[in-house]
Amino acid sequence: MGKIVLLDELTINQIAAGEVIERPASVVKEIVENSIDAGATKIDIEVQNGGIKKIRVIDNGSGIKEDDLEFAFERHATSKIRTATDLETVKSMGFRGEALASIAAIANVELVTKTEEDSIGHKIVLEGGDVIEKTEIGAQKGTSITVTNLFYNTPVRYKFLKKDYTELRIYRRCSKKNCTCKS
Predict the structure, then answer these.
(1) Chain-centre distance of CA 20, in angstroms?
(2) Total-model pTM
(3) DSSP of 19-72
(4) Per residue of the chain (183 residues), what is the pLDDT tens digit?
(5) Edge-to-edge, what's the strand order for the sheet holding 54-59?
(6) Domains located in the chain, CATH noted
(7) How far apart, in whole angstroms, are the C-alpha atoms of residue 112 and residue 123?
(8) How far is it, in rounded angstroms, from Cα 147 to Cα 56?
């Protein structure tokens, strides 16, 4: 029998996450870019323990339709391109569909969202990339995403993180327009 094997989906996602999410600041960057792409004019950021314990980003953007909630956390799922030709005209900050899948693979994620057209908001909770809850919830237009226990299931990545205050200093470099950083 040969030495080469196909990896399981969780391992694949954790490896991909390591390429997209290097540290808590990477999470903030990816989520803030999604907020900007969603047309948000107000973005609030809350961080605990340099982002390792908790990152919350709340925006007033367009929100995510209920039918798209689970797809948003799939690898290579995106609303910004449809074909390879679209790559020539991409005007958004992100388009690969890697960020949310990568974050969900290495953290606990709760996303609450509501579109202008919806009468009620929707919440999805993921752990290690698996959906563990999906419910209706009262919410304002926009999206709130809370990421907790970053790198809880990838100890190799976790051990290379800097002290909380260093991670926070990296995060404080956030200078995006409309970004109100809280720690």
Answers:
(1) 11
(2) 0.74
(3) HH-SSHHHHHHHHHHHHHHTT-S-EEEEEEGGGTSEEEEEE-S----GGGTTGG
(4) 788 888 777 777 666 665 667 778 889 988 998 899 899 999 999 998 888 889 999 999 999 999 999 888 887 666 555 566 655 565 555 544 568 888 998 899 999 999 999 999 999 999 988 999 999 999 999 999 999 998 888 755 555 565 554 445 544 445 555 555 544
(5) 130-137, 121-127, 108-114, 142-148, 54-59, 43-48, 179-182
(6) 9-182 (3.30.565.10)
(7) 4
(8) 6
